[in-house]
Amino acid sequence: MRNLLACLALPGVLLASPFVVAQDAAPNIVVLLFDNLGYGELGVYGGGALRGAETPRIDQLAAEGMRFTDFNVEAQCTPSRSALMTGRFPIRSGTYKVPRPGQPDGLTLWEVTLPELLSAKGYATGIWGKWHLGSSEERFPTQQGFDEWYGVPRTYDEAMWSASDVASGLTPAIGSKQGWDQKLAPAQFIYEARKGEAPKAVKKLDLDTRRTMDEEITQRATAFINHNAQSGKPFFAYVSFSQPHMPTQPNPAFAGKTGNGSWADVLAEIDFRTGQVLDALKAAGVEQNTLVVLASDNGGESTYPWQGANGPWRGTYFTAMEGSLRAPFILRWPGHVSTGKVSNEIVHIVDLYTTLAHAAGAEIPTDRAVDGVDQMAFFTGKQPKSNREGFPAYVADRLSAVKWRNWKLQLILQDDMYDPPQTLALPRLYNLLTDLREEHNVAAQNTWVITPMMSIVGALKTSLAKYPPIESGTPDPYVPSH
């Protein structure tokens, strides 16, 4: 139990911990976040050619930096992106599930986002792609710390609303009475926005514009990199790629490229777009002082015919199985992060908020619970172990599992996102080193493990009592009650 709460990275620990900047010049920060890229897709994670397309640029990125095999995300898109932006478990922020159209959604303006922290340190900040943390203009990214944005407020499956013909292969041909009517559900748009200016709806989100999103995201992100590199201003580039989120269809330039189908073509495009961003950093002369993160927000797609590959792990996203929680994560920072290293230490997406803020010399808010822990010493090799040993895993607002070291305690059973969640009468315990598929309950033989795992739950409950969570759909202005 030594330093248990510190190891578990639960609230209250970070509030008194000062940051020490490890370098003189603030690094540029680039986060390449793919949408539902499963653990088993990339070559360095056992995919690549096995999935129909090699991924040489991403594999090389891993060789030039550090690769993680126990990087954990939230079960759904909105919660993962909220965790990245706030360093807080989404159960605190009212962002614990994907919002339904027509309902209030998103982060309250009270939250202090990562781009807000970096902006205060003189960083230029940009996001391209999906936001998913606020559908109203009052909660668009340019109201939450970003200088510029090009992308969609919610999600890419809305591109299928207008696909009401057999040729699309997506929805059956039906009459207008039964089909989508934009009078009932307005068409969704791709927006362009700059801080201090009214956002503009550039074009409709449909299957055609969806196919070219990552090309446009890359063009705009690389232009941002070039501009700020020339000006000498540090920058935070949040490149929120659309692929391989359903409908998983490649850019026309990649259609048929692999000969192995649309999914493989998309995988080839993912690798190519990554290479374009990396090439832009090198060409701009800032590669050596840029911290690059490549990650996914969720496990692989589970809807036919776009199912992703989660490697050896069981389950789909929207569950608390390892196929949902474990995602690719590669970190490159020349001169700071070891090259070619692979770690199976537990890291959670909330930790990126705190660690990237540290890299920029920014201070973490002290008036709220922050769940992310500073992983700088671990990432840079000053210590061999992660500063996190476990975390609670929520699916929406249901505490579904707890992870601690190599152990997993399942409280709610759900293999697939389309399965009904079943609360277990007795929790099931799995040793993830010997039971990757979570098939053999060893709780009876290892009751001792329950103590540190329940300490995680207890500490979280205590913290939620001290810092009451924000209800989903809470309007602005929000003022905490504590």
UniProtKB/TrEMBL annotation:
InterPro entries: Alkaline_phosphatase_core_sf, Sulfatase, Sulfatase_N. The keyword Lyase does not apply. CDD domains: ARS_like. Keywords: Calcium, Hydrolase, Metal-binding, Signal. It comes from the Bacteria. The keyword Metal-binding applies. Residues 1-22 form the signal peptide. SUPFAM superfamilies: Alkaline phosphatase-like. Its cofactor is Ca(2+). Residues 27-362 form the Sulfatase N-terminal domain. Belongs to the sulfatase family. This is Arylsulfatase.
